UniProtKB/TrEMBL annotation:
It holds the Pfam family HTH_IclR. Residues 2-61 form the HTH iclR-type domain. The keyword Nucleotide-binding does not apply. This is Glycerol operon regulatory protein. May be an activator protein for the gylABX operon.
Length: 263
């Protein structure tokens, strides 16, 4: 039975390459045509493959519907939370998770710092979109035309002397973030707060969320915070693997790996 299931599932990536006839399927599986036909008929009955008028088979609409339903039901916060807690336990600083909704970047999870100095950010609160590291990562992943249109619509409040002042500077910053794959806010929103962030991606490679570590400079300097960047990026990559389905869910936090100097 397991061999039959394995063979049936092996048909799906074959058809993902394009339509194939019965002989091609049988050859790829290394089975007789009658066996391949039984497998294809079963998959066809469940809507996972479709037989075209030319007698070739392609992936069925039901497969795409199931995939879309699975994506819509994924809860990035539920998946990410254990990793955020684990990261917080390793570094001690405030950890955030943010997503893009209706032209705003919102915090959807937060793990508080163990230090007495706390941040005033709240779950459900929009971030300062032109300076926040998580916002830069999410917006940098948008198509170029969408990035430019959004940048032209935004206001650019000068929270501090390090705030991004205009659309041209913002687009330049997004281009840098897009290329390097991580982002910072070093005193751009509050003079005393620094932040580093990394993206979380879906199965299609697009950024679906961003996570960050933030700390006041009375606790760590910006340079010291940047040494945590490899650890933050590894955590984001681990969440990406679980969210995108490329790795099994873990039952316990991953072992601690010391951070190294940021690139």
């Amino acid at each position: 039975m397991s061999q039959t299931v394995d063979r049936a599932l092996s048909i799906l990536p074959l058809l993902a390459e394009g339509p194939a006839d019965l002989g091609q399927v049988a050859d790829r599986l290394g089975v007789h045509k009658s066996t391949a036909l039984r497998l294809l008929r079963t998959l066809h009955e469940h809507g996972l493959v479709h037989r075209q008028a030319d007698q070739r088979y392609r992936l069925g609409a039901r497969l795409f519907a199931l995939a879309q339903e699975a994506v819509e039901n994924l809860d990035i916060r539920e998946i990410a939370h254990p990793y955020l807690v684990d990261l917080n336990e390793k570094c001690g600083h405030t950890v955030h998770l943010a997503v893009y909704e209706e032209n705003e970047v919102l915090y959807i999870d937060k793990v508080e710092s163990r230090y007495p100095v706390r941040m005033y950010s709240r779950i459900g609160k929009p971030v300062a979109i032109t300076v926040a590291a998580v916002a830069k990562l999410i917006l940098a992943d948008l198509p170029e035309a969408q990035r430019r249109a959004l940048a032209e619509k935004l206001d650019y409040p000068m929270y501090t002397a390090r705030s991004i002042p205009n659309a041209a500077a913002f687009l330049k910053e997004l281009a840098t973030v897009r290329e390097q794959g991580w982002a910072t806010d070093l005193g751009g929103h509050e003079e005393s707060i620094n932040c580093i962030a990394a993206p979380i991606r879906g199965a299609d490679g697009r950024v679906v969320a961003a996570m960050s570590v933030s700390a006041p400079n009375v606790v760590v300097t910006a340079e010291e915070l940047l040494t945590l960047l490899p650890l933050v990026r590894r955590t984001a990559d681990a969440i990406t693997r679980e969210y995108s389905g490329s790795a099994p869910a873990r039952d316990t936090p991953a072992p601690h790996t010391p951070a190294h100097k940021a690139p």
